[in-house]
Amino acid sequence: MYKRVLLKLSGEALAAGAGFGIDAVFIHKVAAEIATVHALGCQIGIVVGGGNFFRGVAQQAIDMDRVAADHMGMLSTVINAIALQDAIEKLGLFCRVMSAIEMHQVAEPYIRRRAMRHLEKGRIVIFAAGTGNPYFSTDTAASLRAMEIKADILLKATSVDGIYTADPKKDPTAKRYETVTYNDILRLELKVMDTTAVSLCRDNNMPMMVFSMREEGNIARVISGEQLGTIVTP
Ligand code: UDP
Fold first, then answer.
1. Does 61 score more than 80 pLDDT?
2. ipTM surpassing 0.85, yes or no?
3. What is the mean pLDDT of residues 147-156?
4. Residue identifier of the C-alpha nearest atom 6 of ligand 1
5. Which of 14, 179, 195, 216 has the greatest count of CB atoms below 10 A from its CB?
């Protein structure tokens, strides 16, 4: 079992089947799975996405300035973080939201040493607002925070059960990789996460597991050390 993990939850995943907003039933299931592994002694940091509300790149199509759109995207991750914190706290756990954009009334500012202290004290930490910078993604934020908190592994929960040779929703011949390297992802242009996030993990030797959170229990299984989906090695 891992001692400390960084779990990346995409916004889309929190919307479950709806595609937009937060699925109230699903977020409580996610919180319950996190509570199960937390009870076993794993320290858990979480980076949440915001794509279920707002994606910077997509808004450029309606002629929005990219920086303005990215600011909106980062704020949407804060909405998800607060919802997840609420669901986790309802289970009697201690949970802190730390935001990369300062907003003292709703979240603590992200201070690495303070984040480490929360984790050591057994508090679950949700990292909100991505990296705090436009032109980045929450995948990059997840890679960065994973390294900063010295996580054993980056666990990327998505709606697909691993990394495939092609998009399995479009290509029925697509095959799933058991293991793959970051260099393979870059060379073969596999759609896993953006290249900034990939190269950050590669250059700093951060392993990653990409798995589906659609099936109940998967989050608990991977944090407990079971291999699901695809393992990415540096
Ligand atoms: N974003 C950003 N900087 C960051 C992280 C996120 O500008 O460091 C913005 C960006 O517009 C992005 C949006 O926040 O589209 C939501 O994040 P993301 O698309 O990564 O969420 P996910 O796909 O995981 O739901």
1. no
2. yes
3. 98
4. 137
5. 14
- Which is the closest atom of ligand 1 to the Cα of 8? 24
> What is the distance in A from the centroid of ligand 1 to the CA of 40?
31
231 lies in some domain? no
CATH number at residue 30: 3.40.1160.10
Q: Alpha-carbon distance 192 to 150, whole Å? A: 22
Domain that holds residue 195: 4-226
Asked if 26 and 103 count as a contact pair (C-beta separation under 8 A), the reply is no
* Number of compact structural domains in the chain: 1
197 falls within a domain: yes
Could you give the C-alpha distances from 41 to 5, 44, 120, 167, 213, in angstroms and in order?
A: 11, 9, 10, 36, 21
* pLDDT confidence bin for 60, thresholds 50/70/90: low
Q: Is the CB of 74 under 6 A from ligand 1?
A: yes
The CB of 128 under 6 Å from ligand 1? The reply is no
pTM above 0.80?
A: yes
**165 CA to centre of ligand 1 in angstroms:** 25
Does residue 108 belong to any structural domain of this protein? Answer: yes
